[in-house]
Amino acid sequence: MTKQLLLGMTCIFVCALACKKEKLTGDDKSIAGTWKWIYSTGGLFGGVPKDESYHRTLIIKEKGKYQYFNNDKKLGHGILIKNNGYYEFLNREVIGNDDISGQKIIRHFGDTLIISRAICCDHFDFVYVKEK
């Protein structure tokens, strides 16, 4: 059992390292920066209002890496990969999971970034605004 677990974890680790991050180029460079969560929409019960305990910050670097925080506590970090025309967040940590991993940037206009797990269907969309 221990050998199987070790082998499985090794496979996951190798697969995670094999994914190539996407360096942001051209117009995509505008998604680099520090983004603050403002609100969420969608889901079964509609929008989620911002409250005092939920201060998500997303930092996207031009080299295709991201860091994700709640208040000042780091929740995770990883890389952006381009999948079917959308940038997707991929957590590079073998153990642990930030809640942004697996989500996609589905819309970007001006200083607003909308992130969701699905392009269609009933999922939450998370709206971020770029810090000046």
Biggest sheet descriptor: 8 strands, antiparallel, barrel
Radius of gyration: 16 Å
Strand content: 35-45%
Number of strands: 8
Morphology call:
globular
Which CATH architecture would you pick? Beta Barrel
- Pick out the low-confidence regions: 13-18
- What strand line-up does the widest sheet have? 1-2-3-4-5-6-7-8
Average pLDDT: 77
The total domain count is: 1
Decide which structural class fits the backbone. Answer: mainly beta
Order of helical and strand elements: HEEEEEEEE
CATH fold label: Lipocalin
Characterization of this structure:
- With 132 residues, the chain is mostly beta strands.
- It is built from 1 helix and 8 strands; from the N terminus they run αββββββββ.
- It has a single domain, classed as Lipocalin (Beta Barrel).
- 13% of the residues lie in helices and 42% in strands.
- Strands 1-2-3-4-5-6-7-8 form an 8-stranded antiparallel β-barrel.
- The chain is globular and about 35 Å long.
- The protein starts with a helix and ends with a strand.
Features:
132 residues, mainly beta, Lipocalin, eight-stranded antiparallel beta barrel, 1 helix
Task: Indicate the topology.
Elements: H1 2-18, E1 33-42, E2 56-60, E3 65-70, E4 73-83, E5 86-91, E6 104-109, E7 112-116, E8 124-130
Outline of the structure:
By secondary structure, the protein is mainly beta.
